[in-house]
Amino acid sequence: MGANRPLDRFELGTFIAFAALGVAALAGLLLRVLDQGGVFTGADSYVTLDQLQYLNWIRQASEHVAIENLYDTAPSSRSFVHPGVLVSGGLHAAGLGLVASFQVMKLAAIPLLFGATLVYARRFLAERGDLRLALVVALFSVSPIAALFGWLDLGSAKQRLQLDFMAGEIWTGHYLWGYMFTAIAVNM
Questions:
Q1: How many CA atoms lie within 13 Å of 47's alpha carbon, on the beta-carbon side?
Q2: 153 — alpha (psi -120 to 50), left (phi > 0) or beta?
Q3: How does pLDDT run across 108-146, given as a tens digit for each residue?
Q4: What is the pLDDT of residues 10-64, one digit of tens each?
Q5: Measured between alpha carbons, how far is 122 from 162 in angstroms, rounded to an integer?
Q6: How far apart are CA 69 and CA 56, in angstroms?
């Protein structure tokens, strides 16, 4: 099973499911705005502040290329250039809306993250069943520990929050909900 062979039906189905997962939060938020009104901020993660800062960076990159941290009380200079922010900033400078310039990175993040995972699994696993299991586990598995602590009311509220955070951070799908730059970087 070569790393460069085309996708079989199972792999294609897994890719479609992974892509659907990647756009699920975005689609849900957009449908909610269409149905109930309101404004979509551009953030499709439960840590909205991160995505709002990314939007600010994209706006800065569209105007100046290098960006600065506007949320620090200490003076700073435009000393940060991020490749993903630079691409999104270029799209925004070319006329694409700010939110669209950020969300369009999903079009790269989803196939890159899936492809890197598939190539890695193909490199080490020759048996089709092993490869399929590894692909599904790598892309979709989430530790149940945080859910169990929450359902059983174990530990303090702070400990449950920390477990929730850690479970999200180690789940591959999390990168596609507002952290597309991370999803792309994981593949490099």
A1: 14
A2: left
A3: 999 999 999 999 999 999 999 999 999 999 999 888 888
A4: 999 999 999 999 999 999 999 999 999 999 999 998 788 889 999 999 999 999 8
A5: 34
A6: 9
